[in-house]
Amino acid sequence: MTPPQRLPTPDDSPARILLVDDEQRMLDSLQKLLRFYNFEADVALGGRAAIERLEAASYDVVLLDLRMPDLSGHAILAHIAERQLPLLSIVVSGESSVDDVSKALRLGAYDYLKKPYVPDELIATVKNAINKKRLEDANRVMSLRLNRSEKLHRFIVNNSPDIIYILDEDGCISFLNSRVEALLGFRREELLGRPILALVEKEDREKAAYFFEQPTPPGEAGRTIDLALRTRSGGRARRYFEMSLWPVKERDELHGSDRYRLYGTARDITDRLEAEAFISFQAYHDLLTRLPNRTLFKDRLSMAITQAARNDKRLAVMFIDLDRFKVINDSLGHTMGDRLLQAVSQRLMGCIRKGDTLSRFGGDEFTLLLPDAQSEEAAVMVAEKILDSIKRPFKLAGHEIHIGASIGISLFPEGGVTLDAMIKNADIAMYRVKNSGKNGYAIFSHDMTTPATERLMLEQELRRALESDEFQIVYQPQVATDTEALVGVEALIRWNHPTRGLLAPGEFIPVAEDSRLIIDLDRLTLARACREIAHYHRNGIPELRLAVNLSPLAVEKADFVERVLATLAEENFPPHLLELEITESLLMSDRDDVVEKLEQLSAAGVHFAIDDFGTGYSSLSYLRKFPVATLKIDRSFVNSIRAAAREEACIVDAIISMAQGLKLNIVAEGVENRTQFNYLRSLGCDMVQGYLFGQPTSMSHLLQQRLTVADSAAAT
User: Fold this and answer.
1) Half-sphere exposure (CA, 13 Å, Cβ side) for 637?
2) Alpha-helix runs per DSSP H in 544-685
3) What value does the CA radius of gyration of the chain take, rounded to a whole number of Å?
4) For 562-588, what is each residue's pLDDT tens digit?
5) How far is it, in rounded angstroms, from Cα 301 to Cα 315?
């Protein structure tokens, strides 16, 4: 990626910047980025180190994370506020909850950036903060000289970023700086002599009157209030200001007495309040349809269940899934799919009442809460209304689109007494509709919970898991038999299920194959494994080989070759270090198009291996026809190798002899003990993998295990 254009520092004098985070890599990244733009920055690893830095030196700007184990970013912000340190704080954090962000802003944070940060946005924010800090520093210095020069006083007041005003004894404006023209659009002459309340929006005038009219004794500290002020043009709906007020004593020379007037400032906080509101909206709404998201829906459902249980009432939850949406999305494109979802959400909103909650649950799925559905008939009436609305054609960009909907309904308390049970059972009922022909509704009953339904539920969870990236790649080492050195790894996928924990492939791969989701899983595995192993190619293991298992369904896709080559190019992965494992059943299909695809990839340098060799019906003719480089001996044959009965391992002998005759590489799977390993090595097997050399794990853990084994061997 071409780096952004280098920008000059905002001032000749260097800004003093402190970076605070509990991850050294993040500190290094931020420091490197700032140096690229000619900024110098100190770093503090963790919250306590940051406090020590702040006590030892002064800074203009601090960039800090919120979530740190020793001392949180909120605690550092509180320390800065308590010590009244003259600096601006910018939060750069992965924490995006409304409470975390709002608390940071309340503690005085200048701005908030979410990890992972956008470099240009971060630099622009730092520059703005530095400029603002310098302006504040300049204002502070000039304020100390205010009594020395009237000219300097006027300059400071009229160039302040805030509105500055003075009120007389009657609460009328006797002075305004020029900033009011830029922020509110009024000329100063128009407002002089008018009550300050004339500038306040109607809904805030009552509290403003109390604020300005209450007595202000001499020596009292300033008071503040947030108010909405009117603008001349009315271009923006509202502008909000933090109004501050201080009493000012003046000497009345004519009467020989003192009098008090009120001096105040008005700081524009509109952008800050809008940012807080937008962050809150993002946290609880789907930005495409503007509907409540899953989090907000669950909050409202939880409250509705509590109230229904307390008042002995009923409620209904609907799970709505659009029929044929994937076909339309694939044929007309994602942009048209997004427009269709927006149109559907508008139709659905027209079918519900004010107290109901419609949410986009994910993808083309919607959920609906009917808190006042006191009968089954009431819920059915809404479902039928939705179906009638959805079946009318949608006219989008010249296309007339027809879709349907499958609706599952769960009623409280028959359909569950917890929010998870209500949603899950509505989902089960929806899948019953899908299985029976789609475009209808069904009310959950307990006889719907069958193994077939559970399989459908797992398929749905699998689709959601692909959207929310709940998968991880683990690696099993492949070891050379002659040196016992690590020469390759096989990439294996695992599912971090949110409620069932880490799932092995056997628990979800069959469902993925039946639903053809295996194609997406294979693509995910290949891309992520190439990316991770390419990292180790660049960092000390340049010839590490990668083996990835492929489903026949993925190979049969028309764009299979293009996708594999595109992935290798995107991840900068050497083709000769990739070995794709295919099954014997794919060879037995004897399809010319499959042979052509494998030959194209083989010509590009990619190797192919036959996985679980010997468990199918492969023949020598197929091995000759396909560009196969490696045979993988199935673990069931390796298990037959025993110290006392090696004659049972004759199949292993035969496979190895055949592979050697065909000049193919050999990998034995499932090697669990030294007896098996030594026997395979004596036969000339090239590589082995199995629990003897490590269970599937992350690459970092795998390499640490290998290092520990090497250290133990050296010590012995």
Assistant:
1) 22
2) 552-556, 560-571, 584-588, 592-603, 620-625, 635-638, 650-661, 674-683
3) 35
4) 999 999 999 999 999 999 998 877 776
5) 9
